[in-house]
Amino acid sequence: MSKCTCQFETILQYSSPARGGWSIVRYAMQVPESYQLFVGPAACMRHIMLSSMELKIDHRISWLFIKESDIVSGSYEQLILKNVDELLSQMTPRPKVFMIFTTCIDNLLGTDHDVFLKPLNEKYPDTKTIVCFMNPITGEGPTPPAITIQDSIYSLLKKSEVRERAVNCIGNHLPIREDNELICHLKQHGFQVRHISQYQSFEQFQEMGQSVLNLVLSPLALYAAKQMKKRQGIDYLYLPVSYSFAEIEKGIQLVCDRLDIEPLDPTDARRQAEQALEETRKELNGRPVSLDYEATYHPFSMAHLLLTHGFHLDTIFSGECIPQEQREFDWILERHPEVNIVQPDQYTMLGKRRNEEDHLCIGFEAAYYIGSPHVVPVAADAEQYGFSGICLLMKRMAEENARSYDLEQLVKDSGLVV
Amino acid sequence: MKQISLQLPPFAPDYSGACSALFELGGMIVIHDACGCTGNYTGFDEPRWYDGESQVYCSALRQMDAIMGDDEKLIGRVLRAAEDMHPKFIALMGSPVPTVIGTDFAGIAEEIQQRSGIPAFGFLTTGLRLYDVGASEAFLALVKRFARPGASEPKAKTVNLLGLTPLDFYVGGTVKALHSALEQQGWNILASIAMDTDLEKIRDSVDAQINLVVSQSGLAMAEYYKDMYNIPYVVGLPVGSEAADELFSMLEQSAEDGQNRILSSGHGQGNYQTVILGERVICNSIRRCLEVDCGLEGVAAVGIFSPEPRLMGSDDLSATCEDEIETLLNESGCTRIIGDPLFKRLLANDNKAEFFEFPIPAVSSKLYWNQCVPIIGDQIFTWLPKMGRR
């Protein structure tokens, strides 16, 4: 009988001390020469400012608090206009992009953003002032903040008539490594592969608007890609991270077809991944492995990979099963009922820490609940993509197998926030 | 007051203070928010969270629930969790969105209490006020609900401590030192509200001979004890040596004559040489130590949170936003500053004042909360060695 106890339902939520991911700030900071101002009740910005200090990016961010009287009087827009105007007038050099982040209450106040955007963009034409959203109240809707921020970022690309032999990777926080089989293949065929993190200036960043194709590597950027297709005329392929050999190969084929380049023979890459899996499995020597959905957006795909390659998978911590993973989820329920599937954010998880120090845990939250110091400290799949991504995951697992951490300190240093 | 901040984080909000006040008491605390407010508290304002097992939950409020005013969803979720988790009480905390839509927390709490049989509170925390206000309201509600009603015969040499949260006192050292200092003076601590205590002790706290208010958030509670149980209070902390003795004397006097007393400055203000920034009662107590034990004059205690006139002298200062703090640090002419390490960011390049780091969790959160600096008794002189102790 399956040990799956989760219903993936929304009840009172428990937020474990190890829960967290990239903040909206961190995503948006990838825009070169940008500056962020958060506007809202002071409370909303506390974690933003403190986590920015931890990450040492707080010199590019400030906050403007609103009082109850500002909400009641409706002077909110004028307050923003006055303060941003004053701030921009004093900044040297001025940022190329000034992002005004509003919070949950903005959704209920009916703010007219044009009241401040229009005059600010007229007065400071060299600084593009835009509104972004940090409004988790939209969490279960179609456009939560982690999705809208991707759109806000790429809306900054100007439409270009020029089309270069280049593709963009969007949605992945960290760039895929150079040794990835698809990246290598694209480069061999004369394509540049672009990622926002490679740009130091806003002007250089604009070259992403001249690429022929967006590779959407995470569900977070799918909405942005659709908007880019409308706005900048850049087509996209939705190829999120997968730990399935078949899906990886299918994705490679789709890219080659779309770009009209010769197919990539994945045999070598696949063999290397198989080899890495086998070596790491031996290295772990039956050690239990647990993983969580902050480490990967595709926990069931990763779990499927590990189970089909002989790893001793103990627990999957996941708050949801996205449609893309339903097949793997069902397979695990049917074929591996011994695997625990646990929803980590339910109130019932309070006090459910185990003390199983022998586990190797992929992700901070898994390590917290399992109570193990052996952690693969990754978030949101990190640079893992394709067959080389599997090799990278295996390398990390093998390395961390022999290492242990003070988890509390590790979480603190990670700069991850709820 | 300028509403923009470039260097400092926002200080801990009211819901963090309220949650912190109730954290150790076995209740279920539900923050009615989408997740960010709960993350603020658990991730940045609660040093006990990592190893603690207190029931602090997020209601998972969503836009449609807010627009439709669907309180039943919140009530249903709380009742279901309460049935499983058996809390001693239930506390609902507001956040900015419920503030805007005018959620009736008192009414919701009443309904939850009726349907579950568990004592329930609704707090109108907004995220627009500071932690000391939230903690004060939570403490007061706690005592009103759980302190044993009716007159009581005070037990000799018994004291309650009012206003303890880690947002002012860190975890561990300071509270233990405070207990120890009072016990050495022969005082028996009945309730240490609310660190290292429980609801039973709060119930029996009405037997105390006197209350010691250790932070501003304990003052409203102290007034209530005075009004309802005729227990007098003293405001202050035993910081230093002679200054601590002064406080202990005040405790004895108040226990004797039933009058309230506040540890305050014995000197006129102005011409500030030394500026202490932080929580009002803590700053006042450190100031008294510097005056009495070190012989310093011109010491300003600057409250940086919610101004409380009852605890301020006529020329006491407060600086409650980044702009005011920056102005005070750079234009007061002070030569010594005691304050949170983050305040160093506000010092002008030509400001040569000597800076003594005194981390305040309600300001700098986990950036420094492991660097607790001791202040009780002589311990303060381990980090203020240059003040010329007599």
Automatic annotation (TrEMBL), chain A:
SUPFAM superfamilies attached to this UniProt entry: Helical backbone' metal receptor
Pfam families, per the entry: Oxidored_nitro
Source superkingdom: Bacteria
GO-annotated molecular function: oxidoreductase activity
All residue ranges annotated as the Nitrogenase/oxidoreductase component domain in the record: 28-398
Signal peptide: none
Official protein name in the record: Oxidoreductase
Species assigned in the record: Bianquea renquensis
Automatic annotation (TrEMBL), chain B:
Start and end residues of each Nitrogenase/oxidoreductase component domain: 15-256
Record-linked InterPro entries: Nase/OxRdtase_comp1, Ni-siroh_cyclase_CfbD
Pfam families tied to this protein: Oxidored_nitro (PF00148)
Highest taxon of the lineage: Bacteria
Annotated Gene3D superfamilies: Nitrogenase molybdenum iron protein domain
GO molecular function: oxidoreductase activity
Name of the featured protein: Oxidoreductase
